[in-house]
Amino acid sequence: MACVNSNARGRALRHALAAAEATVMITSTELQAAVEEVLPALRQDGVRVFYLDAESPTAGVEALGPDMDEASEEPLPAHHRAHVTPGSKAVYIFTSGTTGLPKAAVITEKKLLLVASLARLCGLRASDVLYTALPLYHSAALLVGLAGCLEVGATCVLRAKFSASHFWDDCRRYNVTVIQYVGELMRYICNTPERPGEREHGVRLAVGNGMRADVWEKFLRRFGPVTIREFYGATEGNAGFVNYTGKIGAVGRVNVFLKKFVSFELIRYDVEQDEPVRDERGFCTPVRPGEAGLLVVKITKAAPFHGYAGDPEKTERKILRNVFAKGDAFFNTGDLLMMDREQFLYFQDRVGDTFRWKGENVATTEVENMLSAVSFIQEINVYGVSVPGCPGRCGMAAVRLRAGTRFEGERLAARARACLPSYAVPRFVRIQEALEITGTFKQRKGNLVREGFDPNVITEPLFVLDAAKGTYVPLSAAVYRDILEMRLKL
Prior knowledge:
490 residues, alpha/beta, Rossmann fold, GMP Synthetase, Chain A, domain 3, 3 domains, six-stranded antiparallel sheet, 15 helices
């Protein structure tokens, strides 16, 4: 099975089907317009299309409903799975992709079972009711949430679309004991207006990844002592971590047991050159505790990397070779992590999101964490933009304001100066009605980076930092010209 994003249309949908070498597409009449747009091309490619409905409104597309009603309830004959082994392909899951077309990550039968066991390892029991509003075309909901419930015999409550305002009502209505989160979902919940009885719920455990430390603290203060099991892992990755200790902000902790089974390292990474730093022998060097480094995991028989379906070039690009010895191979996670002196691991940033300014690396996640505490900020997305005459990229923040508030440049500038090194303070701010995210709540930065800070292109309010005045002031066409012609220094 290849799990296709239900938002895919046109070229992206055809790309997904071609990458999976699909012969059959099963969909719903809710997606009739998307199906009919590509149907002639699918017929040409020999792809049969079915609706999971009683009737089909589209000529040439069959309805599976009647056949399913008539199907036998007896188990399928064993010969259908006679050749299935732990290494057989079970599922293709398309990475959400913050840029470009998604890649079909290969999930084997063994990996499916290993990932499904994660929920149990985090504390899921057969008596639990797990609630997820995440899309089932992604590994978190499908493999950790739904498959995790099947693995232990728990009940799974599915919501078609996440709603922060209905979240706790749903939890009470369905007697939910475990919730699943990803990305910014927890912050959306914390941003809802406070209501009486918010701690009156049965949720004891939250399992997920990508929660910021400030949101973690706020969630526990507001909604009570819920056990948080934050984990780290990539859909196509060959290893992951789980924070069993409850250490706020951490994604796991290094120990002898973990190192025995998985060989991983945090190595120095040159953000500007977009490649690992190598010594005079051509080998990579580990970072010291407290420094951010690129997480790489050794590819071994016990920790294989299965790559992407139909895309050997992209598969090879995710492999780093000759890392510490000639001939070795490591999976490149593309993520910068930091390990403290107590050996706790913290996610810092994606390598494509970290940028270099004033000779220093700026981690966008760190800047977002610090500035999201400003009361008028509902959401913030930090990225780097090119400025003529300046090496590296200059910090910019896209901000969505809380309802009923206004942008206060002086307050934001004061907060940035107080908690960030000078090179990490965003020089530009862009106010947006809504921030662009993927289907799995990851913020998109690509379009923002391309549009830069040009008031002739961007119709939304733009501001620039006036360091002398200690505030952000409107970015006019005249100021923009001064920056381009290097009369105004950043």
